[in-house]
Amino acid sequence: MSAKPPAAAAPAKEPAKSKLVLIGAIVVVLIVLAAAAFLFLNSRNHEGDEEHASAPPAVVVPTFLPLENMVVNLADPGGDRFVQIGITLELLDDKTAGMVKQYLPSIRSGVLLLVSQRSSEELLAREGKEKLAADIREEVSRPLGLSGATSARKQADEESADEEERPRRRQQQQNAVRRVLFSSFIIQ
């Protein structure tokens, strides 16, 4: 008789053990499913962020404004040298082009005065042309109330500014006149 009760007790423990294993397996499957759902939803949220972050910034197409060719006497000894110069301004947008057109007589006068102060020797060198372009950019920006090139004092102030103020100052100093391009440059 003692042999039968232990044999009967063994089969009763097996269903309890298999139920425990089954419950454990279900819990593990539920945890895996919950983790997978969390990762899936989290990755979908970040995909939207990445699309916005990795999307290239809107390309701003510059506006080009050609000025009429100018003929200017140069500051050479004897005063017999002159330059014929064609200038095209690369501007930020059409709004800036409209502003430049409003001030065009003043801008042309300023450019003529700038060029007339240069010598042919100075303008024949690449550095002289680049300096003239920077000065013309400043001259075009002046009537518009914009700052073209930064002066040495402004650069020193910017270097001494703390890190938080630098981006704000650069935005304020952004110039709507991007570049001055020469379409013709003849010295005689």
Would you mind describing this structure in some detail?
The chain has 188 residues and is of the alpha+beta class. The chain folds into 2 domains: 1-55; 63-187, Band 7 domain (Tetrahydropterin Synthase, Chain A, 2-Layer Sandwich), CATH 3.30.479. The chain contains 7 helices and 4 strands. The protein has helices at 4-54, 94-102, 104-116, 120-124, 126-144, 152-160, 165-173; strands spanning 63-66, 70-73, 82-91, 177-187. Strands 1, 2, 3 and 4 form a 4-stranded antiparallel sheet that branches. The longest helix has 51 residues, at 4-54.
Tell me briefly what this model is:
Helix 3 (104-116) packs antiparallel against helix 5. With 188 residues, the chain is of the alpha+beta class.
Structural class: alpha+beta
- What is the total tally of β strands? 4
- Identify the quaternary structure here: single chain
The residue-averaged pLDDT reads: 78
CATH architecture of the largest domain: 2-Layer Sandwich
Task: Give the biggest sheet.
Answer: 4 strands, antiparallel
Count of DSSP-assigned helices: 7
CATH domain class name of the largest domain: Alpha Beta
Sequence of secondary-structure elements: HEEEHHHHHHE
How many individual domains?
Answer: 2
Q: Give helix % range.
A: 55-70%
Distance between the first and last residues' Cα: 130 Å
Shape: rod-shaped
Low-confidence stretches: 148-173
**Gyration radius over CA:** 38 Å
List its salient traits.
188 residues, Tetrahydropterin Synthase, Chain A, four-stranded antiparallel sheet
